Amino acid sequence: MFKQLMLASVLLASSTAAAQPAKPGAPDLDDQKKAEAKALYDKGITHYNLGEFDPAIAAFRAAYGISAAPGLLFNIAQAFRLKKDYEQASYFYETYLRLKPDAPNRADVEARIAEMKTLLEDQKKLGSSPPTGTMTPDGDGGTKSTTPVTATTTPVTTVTTPLGTDKGSDKGAGEVRPGATMKTAGLATAAVGGALIITGVIFGRKASSAESDLNALNMGGTWTQANQDAYDKGRRNNKIAIGSLIVGGAAVVAGGSLYFLGRKQASDASVAIVPTKGGTSVAVGWSF
Length: 288
Prior knowledge:
This protein is mainly alpha-helical and 288 residues long.
């Protein structure tokens, strides 16, 4: 559906451009050339929708070489942006505006150009940062980290009490019930999984809403940059929803497993060596 809408908008743009006076040096396209350009555009859209940005760029370039339609430059810029080649993306956004200064999506494209420049600066800063922890050429040693590592030791307090008693005042602060850590970890993991599931549901609803809005274009209308951005955002939301639901479900299952393993450990027999006046004695008990 999206492919058909995009094709309809490009064909509309092509027919509008054909009605205007040709630029100097721009050859008039015959039916065969138009068909070739359209076929290359369709091929580029297919690769673009599949996330195959290199062949998409190649197809859009070839179509532009035939038709010189400025909209194809915008498509090339979009593909470079998603490919994270921000320098090339900025170049084609700027070229698109230079050849089509009255573009209806000019404000959006200018915002994209500013975004590309910011991302390029971030890339340069990251590339100029010296690596840490590297080895010398002969392998004798590496550079020392400038961040001091402080080793902290926590005293371990072992508290032994006769098993079978349950006096709160007799329990030391360092005593850990069998399986308590595992049960706590299980509950925490399950809680994180629940939060991810909720996140997946929220983003899934957003993606569904965007799909409904774009499906309405089937009844009429043209595909604009706002529609393209909504489509891209809908795809991202859908991926986030799927990933959150999968990871969240796995976390809930893992958390439940940890919790029940902790309960099982708590129900197992416990053995403690209790010092006595005449030596030591072994006490065995169970907690339920």
